[in-house]
UniProtKB/TrEMBL annotation:
It comes from the Bacteria. It holds the Pfam family Oxidored_molyb. This is DMSO/TMAO reductase YedYZ molybdopterin-dependent catalytic subunit. It comes from Mucilaginibacter lappiensis. Residues 109-253 form the Oxidoreductase molybdopterin-binding domain.
Length: 264
């Protein structure tokens, strides 16, 4: 059947000429540019004028940015549970010359025989634990890719006691009901806060060895944290004190604006 057009219906439009097409495209792209540009500018102005969060354990970021970051943290904490292990490597892949980074709070001499780890219990009681006491616990080794936020990483080999073994041995289970662990150097110059699930992760160590030898001072003698689920900044060297809390403990780099969670 032949198609016919009733008088009321319009005949198909004449195709646009090249010039008309160009004008139309110019109009559309310029329009899009103006609209997208205004949205971006408006968004930026909104962020710029939004209140700065109160400086507490984190540096003063724009409140909406911090809210977004905290939401992302929650999502990550749900996805990366304790069941996920960080990739490990055979011993022979570990670096022989282990990289050394900053030494805030872990510079200068340390008398290892006099050193004691101070653990502040939630009852107010303080435990004083020697390196010998810690070495008496079962030893765990890990070879993994250590990552620093400054952009380097290195497969390295650490040995020590699992954080969770330490907790069980010293009967600190009630403390692990709290949300955070705080660690600081003996002089309190460097300090970190760790969320409890990451501290209790099966690969987190209180390490006293690197490449099967006692930690040298530059790597945090006599005891350091090795927490493979976090960036290097959280791996505190030369631990002096350990405490537990439901509020975020002070954290050296978070105060400078780095991510508090610093997870991998
Ligand atoms: N006490 C103390 N611990 C610290 C630091 C520090 O400056 N002082 N720097 C951290 C950072 S940023 C990194 S990358 C690692 C580096 O550890 P390493 O020197 O054994 O390689 O230690 C972390 N622990
Ligand atoms: Mo680092």
């Amino acid at each position: 059947m032949k198609k016919t057009f009733s008088k009321k219906q319009k005949a198909p439009k004449k195709p646009l000429t090249i010039e008309q097409k160009i004008t139309r495209r110019n109009f559309l792209s310029f329009g899009t540019f103006i609209v997208a540009g205004s949205v971006a500018y408006g968004g930026w102005k909104w962020l710029y004028n939004s209140p700065e969060e109160a400086r507490t354990v984190t540096a003063g970021a724009r409140a909406p940015l911090r809210r977004a970051l905290n939401k992302t943290e929650l999502a990550f904490r749900r996805i990366f549970s304790n069941n996920n292990l960080v990739k490990t490597y055979p011993k022979n892949m570990a670096a022989k010359a282990v990289r050394h980074n900053s030494d805030i709070g872990s510079e200068g001499k340390i008398d290892i025989d006099a050193w004691k780890l101070q653990v502040k219990k939630h009852t107010g009681e303080v435990l004083h634990i020697s390196l010998e006491d810690i070495k008496a616990l079962p030893k765990t080794d890990i070879v993994y890719d250590f990552k620093c936020v400054e952009g380097w990483d290195q497969i390295s080999h650490w040995g020590g006691v699992k954080f969770s073994d330490f907790i069980n041995h010293f009967k600190l289970n009630a403390e692990t009901e709290l949300q955070y662990v705080g660690l600081a150097t003996p002089d309190k110059e460097y300090y970190v806060g760790i969320d409890m699930p990451s501290a209790m992760h099966p690969q987190t160590l209180l390490a006293y060895e690197v490449n099967e030898k006692p930690l040298p001072p530059k790597h945090g003698a006599p005891l350091r944290l090795i927490i493979p689920v976090k960036y290097g900044i959280k791996n505190l060297k030369r631990i002096g004190t350990m405490s537990f809390s439901d509020t975020r403990p002070p954290d050296y780099w978070a105060e400078q604006g780095y991510d508090y969670y610093s997870g991998l």
